[in-house]
Write a structure and sequence with these properties.
Strand 6 and strand 7 form a beta hairpin. The mean pLDDT is 91. Helices cover 35% and strands 27% of the residues. By secondary structure, it is α/β, with parallel strands linked by helices. The chain starts with a helix and ends with a helix. The chain contains ten helices and 13 strands. The protein has one domain: UDP-N-acetylmuramoyl-L-alanine:D-glutamate ligase (3-Layer(aba) Sandwich). Strands 5-4-1-8-9-10-11-12-13 form a nine-stranded mixed sheet, with helices on both faces.
Length: 336
């Protein structure tokens, strides 16, 4: 490990001056908790007696929450409806201190809501309210103007794709052109989108499954040593040809990360997770941490090692989680 505890403390101490824009698909995650005591007389399905309900920001919003938890200031840009669910999502974001100047609202947008029905800690069902086609809506002048205003005052930007329609090419091009013009770092967290042109992005953080899918290759050696994995090496080269990032970090779950920068050799960062309860949102933690570290002067290797440590903390927590500078420093101190 190259990152020392004193260097990590220095980087984390600068996060408070860091303002990051997250552009992507905004969602509300709802959880309905209950218990099952009987089967419905109407159909052979369990009857869930509701005990409590809660909701949290999801999708690209979780990257913003990670930025806030790490001590920075997050701004969001995306689209939600003028419905009650949209109001609920904005309320959560405002209470978390997330800036929403870049959020566009319209009557003909369906706020993306994922409702999970749980009983006895078991997920019984998920009900999704999906957004309508956002392609035309993302072309409206008001959204572009909001994006311009927020881009003018941030130190870095994350493109967070959940495949719901916000990250169309015109939006991506607008963001990357401004990021390059202002000399601020940009990060791309992909879904399964082969068509987006993100050439010139500072870094990309696909997970292994996404990387193989976008590269159009079958993952035949998931357990291989990352630095000796021929297929993984080929995938990294294909993604570098496709996206032309300055840096690439392929997250590998229990195997850590594979890093590739410029024409240099691939590097491996071993996992730092001591125990894994839930991997939900770990990718959001990774891209938020890397972007913020680059904003305050870290090398890509330092940023990746800090993000790897942060991911190791959040996967040990139940549900989509975040981590704090104090937690990060404590975890790094254990390994010094």
């Amino acid at each position: 490990m190259n990152l020392t505890l004193s260097r990590a403390r220095d980087l984390l101490g600068r996060f408070a001056d860091c303002r990051v824009l997250v552009v992507g698909d905004l969602m509300l995650d709802r959880y309905v908790h209950g218990q099952v005591d009987r089967i419905s007389p109407e159909a052979p399905v369990p009857v869930v007696k509701v005990l409590r309900e809660r909701s949290v920001p999801g999708g690209a919003c979780n990257v913003a929450l990670n930025i806030q938890a790490l001590g920075g200031h997050a701004e969001l840009s995306g689209a939600i409806g003028t419905c009650g669910m949209g109001d609920e999502l904005l309320g959560h974001l405002h209470r978390a201190g997330v800036g929403t100047e870049g959020v566009y609202r319209a009557d003909d947008i369906t706020t993306v809501v994922k409702t999970r029905i749980l009983a006895d800690r078991q997920q019984m069902l998920r009900v999704d309210h999906e957004a309508a086609d956002l392609i035309d809506l993302m072309s409206v002048p008001e959204f572009a103007c909001r994006l311009d205003r927020v881009m003018a005052k941030v130190h870095g930007v994350v493109l967070e794709d959940y495949g719901k329609g916000v990250l169309r090419q015109s939006v991506v091009s607008q963001v990357l052109e401004q990021a390059r013009a202002r000399g601020v770092p940009s990060g791309f967290d992909p879904k399964d989108n082969h068509e987006l042109d993100v050439r010139g992005v500072t870094f990309a953080t696909p997970n292994r499954k996404e990387a193989f899918h976008v590269a159009g290759l079958r993952d035949r050696t998931p357990e291989a040593d990352p630095l000796r994995d021929v297929h993984l090496g080929l995938v990294s080269e294909r993604l570098r040809d496709l996206w032309a990032p300055e840096h690439l970090a392929i997250t590998l779950g229990p195997q850590g990360m594979l890093l590739k920068s410029g024409d240099g050799d691939a590097q491996h960062v071993s996992t730092r997770a001591r125990e894994v309860f839930d991997v939900s949102g770990a990718g959001d933690t990774v891209i938020a941490t890397i972007l913020m570290a680059l904003c305050v002067g870290a090398t890509f290797r330092e940023a990746a090692e800090l993000a790897n440590a942060a991911a190791g903390i959040v996967v040990a927590k139940l549900g989509t989680a975040t981590t704090t500078p104090d937690e990060l420093l404590a975890a790094l101190a254990e390994d010094q």
